[in-house]
Write a structure and sequence with these properties.
Elements lengths: L2 H27 L9 H21 L8 H25 L2 E4 L5 H12 L2 H15 L15 H18 L1 H4 L6 H12 L5 H6 L4 H23 L3 E4 L8 E2 L2 E2 L6 H16 L21 H26 L8 H4 L5 H9 L5 H6 L1 H5 L7 H12 L4 H10 L5 H5 L3 H15 L8 H12 L6
Antiparallel strand pairs: 1-2, 3-4
Length: about 450
């Protein structure tokens, strides 16, 4: 590359990242494929490219272009880590996915692509905060806590055991347990350790990680709100107060989650011969004898584990697939769907957004039924299978659903599905509750 091209590259990278983010949101809001149907990878890889470009432009530091190997490694462990939390969700049942593509190959690939953004996204936000010195240094006097390592390990083990035993009450512990479990290991191994920094009176890195987690969480939920392919929360006791799709108090989970991912990453990187995604920590610590072999075995195990987790996730956690107008109106006059598609209306929510135009192609005596079906299908993108189940038990509209009682409706739907077999996986009462709450909802903030 010429010197001028080298100087221009960071600016181009920053610009392309920003454009990708803007186009992703515009496309999702206006129902443009593939941004509406697959917003997440566009929005997050765009943000990652944008932040990496700023770091390259202003500080001559780029994880993607100057250290691509570390970027790929970080993406790999990002996917593995999130599949680990998907395994925990089989017990916690705190979220589920809707609007997932019905192409099994692409669904598989996209799961890895999406999950691969978790660590790079959070850590690059953290790195930008660090470069900008936001917040400034936060220090206190040194702390002396007798038996700190033992206390930390006890807290970590307790926080891991409680959600496993009592998921309805202690689910939140999973978003911090590994901080306390792994920090003593890092401190003893003379590796980068937040615990050592805090005991030395330096809280700066910890607070910046907490801030990065909060910023990432806000962006996650903003992306999730506009996309067809999304997740829905079913957190116990917090179903009726949400910003976008996240319970208000749920945003407090993102800061410790960022810290936890940072600590887990540092622990895994102990086996990498001192390699690290942070330039100043790269090759600071050498792995012990046999570390490389253990690391390679861990990689192999992680791939097998991720595939197992994906298989369980697709059955238990994915609740609906992305549907066209034709699929959404299954069981209703197919000619109606053909006419709507001919008008350029491809998705249920798009038809509702342009209802006056859509209604002109629907016989007057069918307009109410078609609109009610589209509303149900689009509600949390539950899909036509769930909408048809609701219709079979007498829930024909959003108003009907808003007045239903979760426990009673759950029993009715379960019995109906035993007869009709519309759903492959069992229905969960929490998901029925999420539909009812969504039917009662009037705005993104409630």
């Amino acid at each position: 590359m010429t010197p001028s091209a080298i100087r221009l590259a960071p600016k181009v990278t920053t610009f392309l990242g920003l454009v990708t983010v803007v186009v992703a949101f515009y496309g999702a809001i206006h129902f443009i494929h593939p941004f509406y149907t697959h917003m997440y990878p566009f929005a997050w890889y765009g943000l990652i490219l944008f932040i990496d470009g700023i770091l390259w432009w202003k500080w001559n530091e780029s994880l993607i272009f100057k250290r691509p190997r570390e970027f790929v490694v970080l993406c790999f462990w990002s996917a593995v880590f999130w599949f680990f939390f998907e395994m925990w969700n089989l017990r916690l049942e705190n979220w589920y996915y809707v609007g997932v593509t019905d192409n099994p190959i692409w669904a598989h690939v996209e799961a890895y692509l999406d999950f691969a953004t978790v660590l790079p996204g959070m850590f690059l936000i953290y790195r930008l905060l660090e470069k900008l010195k936001i917040p400034g240094p936060v220090t206190t006097r040194q702390l002396s806590v007798p038996h700190m390592s033992k206390i930390s390990l006890f807290l970590g083990a307790t926080m891991l055991a409680l959600p496993a035993a009592f998921p309805n009450y202690f689910y939140f512990c999973i978003w911090g347990a590994f901080i306390f479990l792994f920090e003593p290991i890092l401190a003893r191994a003379a590796a980068p350790s937040l615990l050592k920094e805090v005991l030395a009176g330096d809280w700066t890195r910890l607070i910046r990680l907490l801030a990065a987690g909060l910023f990432a969480g806000l962006y996650w939920e903003l992306c999730n709100f506009w996309s067809l392919e999304r997740w829905v929360y079913t957190v116990p006791f917090f179903s009726e107060g949400k910003l976008f799709e996240m319970p208000y108090l749920g945003f407090l989970g993102f800061p410790p989650f960022c810290v936890e991912c940072f600590v887990i990453t540092n622990t895994v990187y102990l086996l990498r011969g001192g390699r690290h995604w942070l330039p100043e920590w790269h090759r600071r610590q050498r792995s012990r004898a046999g570390g490389k072999t253990i690391y390679l075995a861990l990689v192999l195990f992680s791939v097998i584990f991720a595939e197992w987790s994906y298989d369980k996730m697709t059955y238990h956690t994915v609740d609906s697939r992305a549907e066209t107008i034709e699929q959404a109106l299954t069981g209703i006059d197919p000619s109606i769907a053909e006419r709507l598609t001919a008008k350029g209306l491809h998705y249920p929510k798009e038809a509702l957004h342009r209802w006056e135009e859509a209604a002109a192609s629907i016989p007057e005596n069918m307009q109410g039924r078609v609109r009610n079906r589209l509303v149900l299908v689009s509600l949390l993108y539950m899909g036509s299978e769930n909408a048809r189940l609701l219709e079979h038990v007498g829930i024909d509209s959003r108003d009907d659903l808003a007045q239903a009682k979760a426990s009673k409706l759950f029993q009715q739907l379960s019995h109906a599905n035993d007869r009709l077999q519309l759903r492959r996986a069992p229905l969960l009462e929490r998901r029925v509750m999420s539909w009812i709450v969504a039917a009662q909802r009037t705005s993104p903030l409630y």
